[in-house]
Amino acid sequence: MSTLTQSQEAITAPPSLYKTLFATCVGNALEWFDIAVYGFFASYIAQAFFPTEDPSVSLLLTFGSFGVSFLIRPLGAIVLGTWADRVGRKKALMMSISLMMLGGIIIVVMPSYATIGLTAPILILIARLIQGFSAGGEFGSSTAFLVEHFPHRRAFIASWQFATQGASTLLASAFGLGLTHWLSEPQIQAWGWRIPFAFGLLIGPVGLYIRRHLHEPDSFIKQDKAASPLRTLAGQQKSLLLLAIGLMVISTAINYMLNYVPTYATKTLHLPGSAAFSATLMAGVILTVVTPLMGLWAEKVGRRRLMWSALLLLILTIYPGFLLVVSHTTPATLLLLVGWMALLKSVYFSTVPSMMADLFPVSTRASGMAISYNVAVTVFGGFAPLICTLLITATGTRLAPSYYLMLLALISGWALYKSQSRLKN
């Protein structure tokens, strides 16, 4: 069959909604599962690979490596995002999931610091850098792939990008809750924390196989390809990048705050690990179930109305929520705060991918979304646990995370206001 015939067939063949959803979201799920597990088991990872006499310093080193791995995400966004715009979304998606699996294998098999010394934390950092690079191109390519295949359902189908993040949080929390019940602390420290990372590796081959049999969206095939998407973005679309980053910042901050909850609850609030993982488990359920429902609702009432409602409620309630938990520290108040954060995140989060996609033309969509998404995640998300830990240490108040979230909610509100003239409801 000729190349022309294959291209024509690709253009006319109707895509399968469920197959396309699974193929694109599985990589996103793998990425966020590994991120959530790393955050949830940070205290164990700290002892295994970053041991010091001061546990707080070990934890800071662990979250530092967690944050540093995000510094490479913009590079991954540039390389894989521009590749997706120039040669195809499918090839970029294949590469990103392969690199995620490679980083995961290194973490699973890596001996501890006690066994091989300084080599262990260095290789763990390299593994996180590989995963950060691959994750840098995942969101832009996969979201562009979804909205270009199903433009008439863009709000709903793109919301699944973040629903899978909720599913990953749910699954990671289930592992954390299960391991704290079934294994002793020494067993978790010795080998138990590796189990969820090993499980994550099972997801990769399935996604890789399905992605191999997808075809490119019609709009991408028909679109004239930009010779240099990066040059176009830097020269003509800088304002679009800033708006997309602004839309993302509160979304990604809440996401990483939820990953930070087990550490915040056990180290700062001194609650048991089971209470912390129960809270994140509930958050995962809310994010998984509510996010696509909000995507459906956005198709009826409009995306901006939902986004403004979530932002205003967050600004008004996040400080009282943290004050309640700090003043009355119980598992119940922690559940209430985490559940409320997850609900507001679901409302706002559900519309963000399709809004970001609408900001950019097809020729720069994957790279524009990838770069803006990963700048936001790197600066405001990946370092959120470290920033909150430092803020609590510097200010002496356990309310410090609420200040951080309110500031970012104002930034996202500014971006939403400025972008309204460019976006459909």
Structure, explained:
With 425 residues, the chain is mainly α. The protein has 21 helices and no strands. Helix 14 runs antiparallel to helix 17 and helix 16 runs antiparallel to helix 17. It is globular and about 60 Å long. 56% of the residues are buried.
Concise summary:
The chain has 425 residues and is mainly alpha-helical. It has helices at residues 3-12, 17-40, 42-49, 55-68, 73-87, 89-109, 113-116, 119-149, 154-182, 185-192, 194-212, 218-222, 229-236, 238-268, 273-301, 303-327, 331-349, 352-359, 365-382, 384-395, 400-419.
SSE order and pairing:
Elements: H1 3-12, H2 17-40, H3 42-49, H4 55-68, H5 73-87, H6 89-109, H7 113-116, H8 119-149, H9 154-182, H10 185-192, H11 194-212, H12 218-222, H13 229-236, H14 238-268, H15 273-301, H16 303-327, H17 331-349, H18 352-359, H19 365-382, H20 384-395, H21 400-419
Helix pairs in contact: 2-6, 2-8, 2-9, 2-11, 2-14, 3-4, 4-20, 5-6, 5-8, 5-19, 6-8, 6-11, 8-9, 8-19, 9-15, 9-18, 13-14, 14-15, 14-17, 14-18, 14-19, 14-21, 15-16, 15-17, 16-17, 16-21
Short key terms for the protein model shown above:
425 residues, disordered N terminus, mainly alpha, 84% helix, globular
Residue fraction in strands: under 5%
Rg over C-alpha atoms, rounded to the nearest angstrom: 21 Å
Give the overall pLDDT as a whole number: 85
Number of helices: 21
Give the uncertain stretches in residue-range form: 1-12
- Tally of extended strands? 0
N- to C-terminal distance:
43 Å
- Helix content range of the residues, please? over 70%
